[in-house]
Amino acid sequence: MAWRGKVDSLLDIALPARCLLCAAPALATLDLCAACLADLPRNHACCRRCALPLVHAAELCGECLRREPPFASAWAPFCYAHPLDLLEARFKFQRDLAAGRLLASLMVDAASRFLPPLPAALLCVPLHESRLRERGYNQALELAKPLARALHLPLHPHALRRIRSTQAQSGLDARARRRNLRGAFEIDPAQTLPTHVALLDDVMTTGSTLRECARVLRKAGVQRVDVWALARAPARR
Q: Does the domain at residues 45-232 carry the CATH identifier 3.30.410?
């Protein structure tokens, strides 16, 4: 109705949107100001295979040269660094859904520059049911929903299942992360998946979770798995 649009316009004037990071007046299309948007760490120079941030762009990082990942490519438009990490922590651990909507919008905008061919379906890294009850939502799924709509991709939120509750990955080194995840995932046998899928998570740290999920998908017959994440963490020193 026309009157609703007028009310919304008046509210925008009376209560202008504020930046979620610094509380300055926000841009018209995002809950960020122009300065904070410019401060977000973009992942421009990275490994072509795993999206690891690098000082200079390279075909492959040392880890991918040593141990070929089970996924074909990785896309992570941001580096996991300040101030993006503040928004991610609020979304993931403080149930700040406004931060989640902002992060999803940033991911959709970055994906608008994708070139075909796209995968035939989008999946997300699942949470174990105990963690899902505790948190109330799967942050990867909340990012995947608007991305799937924007790219016109079918979303299969339950194709991949987490059947074992694992120790939190934070604080573990790469080898311990791999051991922690063995046998943690399975494919829902009722699902029929296409030969090319993308698998989404919120943050790719060492890549252990996405590697294990991709391995399970490949073993189930998916020929190509691409991994997508909002942000990629730099290599640990």
A: no
Domain ranges of the chain: 45-232
Q: What type of residue sits at position 147?
A: L
* Residues constituting the chain: 237
33 in Cβ contact with 22 (< 8 Å):
yes
Q: By the 8 A CB rule, do 124 and 201 touch?
A: yes
Of 16, 20, 17, whose CA–CA distance to 84 is shortest?
20
Per-residue model confidence as pLDDT tens for the chain (237 residues): 444 554 445 445 546 799 999 999 999 989 999 999 999 999 999 999 999 999 887 789 999 999 999 999 999 999 999 999 999 999 999 999 999 999 999 999 999 988 778 999 999 999 999 888 988 999 999 999 999 999 999 999 999 999 887 766 566 666 666 676 777 899 999 889 999 999 999 999 999 999 999 999 999 999 999 999 999 999 876
What pTM did the predictor assign?
0.88
| Spatial contact of 54 and 61, defined as CB atoms under 8 Å apart | yes
